[in-house]
UniProtKB/TrEMBL annotation:
This is Uncharacterized protein. Belongs to the UDP-glycosyltransferase family. The keyword Signal applies. The chain crosses the membrane at residues 511-532. Residues 1-37 form the signal peptide. It comes from the Eukaryota. One of its GO terms (molecular function) is UDP-glycosyltransferase activity. Keywords: Glycosyltransferase, Membrane, Signal, Transferase, Transmembrane, Transmembrane helix. InterPro entries: UDP-glycosyltransferase, UDP_glucos_trans.
Length: 553
């Protein structure tokens, strides 16, 4: 069959039209692709990537641990994860209105947390506790919380039916170890308080690492006697601390027959451990392959300050402001200390923003704005901020360092002592003894940091180092969450050798003992040979000499 021939002119016209149409289609396709690319982050944020169960350590109401988990939950939800929360119903944190807005589902269980405890009083009592007393206190508190959960097996069954992709729990929450084994799902253990003694994951070497978070020893500056003190504390922790810390939870596991054959100490060996730390400030130390340091994940662009605080801060002029805050839990000190702080702060030309919950001190100066709550990180980022007076919790420490704000450090409890040492070692803080603090020493310290520009220069240097990262910290955090879910955990990074080896093997004491025995045997043999040689020579020298007969005649 022959197709009719088309005139040459008309053929050219059709070709032009086809070409025009083709170009138009290609342009439309390109625009569509570009539009799709522009919309990709939005689609990613709304697409479900899986379900995560968060199980934080909640005790004594609102604390830095639950605050960290709330912030991380917001980041995870922005990536498209469904985030559920497991929390005790009696904890103060469980009554926050924001929890229902931040988490997709909140699972509550009746807990043993007491709402009538004076949190500030208890926290301040920690400053006078020994490390062992503090461990006993924390263990008892955690144990009651854990039993409240384990005594309700139906709740654990419900958790299992949810088929979570990941358990995200607090490293200090030993009950999280039991829940992780029960659910048998990939686990991330997050430590918002930095490195905590754990032989299997980040071992302490007492020759140069302070073994207690409440220790005031500094690596590299420990004398021989201080190293003896640190080593004795290391021995005490291994003989008393760890058995008490893990043994009570192992007994609880066996009591309720929840994977009773498993050892609590081994539960996090195949988990990814995220430690809120940065070696710019932290001390060098060995860590296992499944331990990842993460810092700066919470540092977003500063938000506008509340109107009353903004007006007060912006009107400070060239003198600037001093920020005073003692963390999430300590909203107020005792009345005597509050009045002393008020009198001292009133003497400075700087304006002061001070978090004081409850009754305000009578000695409050005209330069001081006392508030029940303050946006600490946003205040520290403000250009008018000159100084931060802090108890040196880890969040406060890192916010001051990231924002290049010099610090007057007054550690009161837990890891504050080590954090204050780190800032002092970096040259951006002046440290005071909270228990022996006087008006004169406080005033002198504040003047020292305000007037000596070395503190500010060192703070700027530390901030530059902390903020110089290969990838944004938030992307690093999300990458590791995705990684654990993608690969079903990090068992391939598991290094249980430190858990299975005793200290004699770990530090080669057995090899040293064998070498000593061999040396002693060698010395004994050498000594015996030497003694026999001397004896033989002595006998030869004393033996009667034969008479020469020729000379005799």
């Amino acid at each position: 069959m022959q197709w009719p021939m088309m005139p040459r002119a008309r053929l050219g016209s059709v070709a032009v039209k086809c070409t025009t149409a083709t170009v138009g289609l290609l342009l439309m396709a390109a625009v569509t692709v570009m539009a799709t690319a522009d919309q990709e982050p939005t689609q990613t944020a709304t697409t479900s990537r899986g379900k995560i169960l968060m199980y934080p350590y909640v005790s004594l109401g609102k604390n830095s641990h639950i605050v960290n988990f709330v912030r991380l939950a917001k980041i995870l939800r922005s990536r498209g994860y469904h985030v559920h929360l497991l929390i005790g119903a009696d904890a103060d944190a469980g009554s926050w209105d924001e929890l229902d807005q931040i988490f997709d589902v909140v699972h509550l269980y009746p807990s043993a947390n007491r709402s009538d405890i004076d949190i500030a009083k208890v926290t301040l009592e920690w400053s006078s506790m020994s490390s062992y007393q503090f461990v006993l206190w924390i263990t008892d508190n955690l144990l009651s919380q854990c039993e409240a959960l384990l005594s309700r097996p139906s709740l654990l069954v419900d958790m299992q039916r949810e088929r979570y992709d990941l358990l995200f729990t607090d490293f200090v929450n030993n009950c999280g170890r039991i829940v992780s084994d029960y659910l048998n799902i990939p686990t991330i253990a997050y430590s918002p308080a930095g490195f905590i003694s754990d032989k299997a994951l980040f071992p302490d070497l007492p020759s140069f690492i302070p073994v207690s978070p409440m220790s005031q020893l500094e690596p590299g500056k420990m004398t021989f006697s201080k190293r003896i003190e640190n080593t004795l504390e290391y021995v005490a922790m291994n003989l008393f601390w760890f058995p008490q810390w893990f043994g009570t939870f192992q007994s609880l596991r066996e009591k309720y027959q929840i994977n009773a054959s498993l050892d609590v100490r081994m539960s996090f060996l195949s988990a990814l451990v995220l430690v809120r730390s940065d070696f710019v400030l932290d001390y060098p130390r060995p860590v296992m392959p499944n331990v990842v340091t993460i810092e700066g994940v919470f540092f977003d662009d500063p938000k506008p300050l509340p109107h009353d605080i903004a007006t007060f801060v912006d009107g400070a002029g060239s003198d600037g402001i001093i920020v005073v805050c003692f963390g999430t839990m300590i909203g107020h000190l005792d009345r005597r200390r509050n009045e002393m702080y008020a009198r001292v702060l009133a003497r400075f030309p700087q304006r002061v923003v001070w978090r004081v919950a409850g009754m305000k001190p009578a000695s409050l100066g005209n330069n001081t704005l006392a508030v029940d709550w303050l946006p600490q990180n946003d205040l520290l980022r403000h250009a008018n901020t000159r100084l931060f007076v802090s108890h040196c919790g880890l969040s406060s420490t890192m916010e001051a360092a990231h924002n290049a704000v010099p610090v007057v450090a007054m550690p009161m409890c837990t890891d504050g002592f080590q954090n204050a040492l780190k800032l002092t070692r970096a040259g951006m803080a002046f440290s005071l003894d909270f228990k022996t603090l006087t008006e004169d020493s406080l005033e002198s310290a504040i003047w020292e940091v305000l007037n000596d520009q070395r503190y500010k220069r060192n703070a700027i240097r530390v901030a530059a180092l902390l903020n110089d990262t290969l990838v944004p910290p938030r992307d690093k955090f999300l990458y590791y969450v995705d990684y654990v879910i993608r690969h079903g955990g990090v068992a391939h990074w598991q290094a249980d050798v430190l858990q299975t080896m005793n200290n004699w093997q770990l530090f080669n004491f057995d090899m040293a003992a064998l070498g000593l025995i061999v040396l002693m045997i060698a010395l004994f043999i050498a000594g015996g040979v030497f003694w026999l040689s001397i004896k033989f020579m002595w006998q030869c020298w004393l033996a009667p000499k034969p008479i020469n007969k020729e000379h005799a005649h």
